[in-house]
Amino acid sequence: VPHTCLPYNHSGQHTVEAVQTTVCDQTINVTCLEGYISTWSFQQGSCLKQYHPMCTINRTFDHEEPGQCRIAQCPAYTSVDPNAVATLDTARESPWGTAVMVTCK
Q: Would you say residue 21 has pLDDT above 90?
C-alpha cells in the first residue's frame, strides 16, 4: 500500500487543487492568488503563478513551508524606459497594484 500524504493545508496566498488522497511521489497543483507569484519559480528566474509540491515518503509535501507565494514586483520603471526621469518612485521596484508617477525627460 503506498504512503499517503497529509493534506496540504497551511494558510497562505494560494489556492490548492482539490484532491481526495495524494500518494507518495504524486504532485498537486497550487496556484498563487492574484498579484502573487510562486517564490520557487521566481528564484528560478520566472514569474509563474503555479507550483507543484510532491508528496514525500515521510507523508509531507516538499515546498510546504509558508511563504511559497510572494507579491509580484515590477522592475524599476527607469530600467525599462530610458526616457523617464529617475525619481524615488521610478528608480525602484514596485509591488503589484501600485501606481507610479512618471515624468518624461
A: no
Whether 55 and 4 have beta carbons less than 8 Å apart is answered as yes
Contacts of 59 (CB under 8 A, 6+ apart): 3, 4, 5, 6
Whole-number Å distance between alpha carbons of 2 and 23: 6
13 with 49: CB under 8 angstroms?
no
Alpha carbon of residue 104 to chain centroid: 32
Q: Are 28 and 17 in contact (CB under 8 A)?
A: yes
Cut 0.85: pTM above it: no
Contacts made by residues 87-96, CB under 8 angstroms, sequence distance 24+: 95/71, 96/35, 96/36, 96/71, 96/72
What beta strand segments (E) does the chain contain?
Answer: 14-16, 30-32, 36-38, 50-51, 69-71, 73-74, 94-95
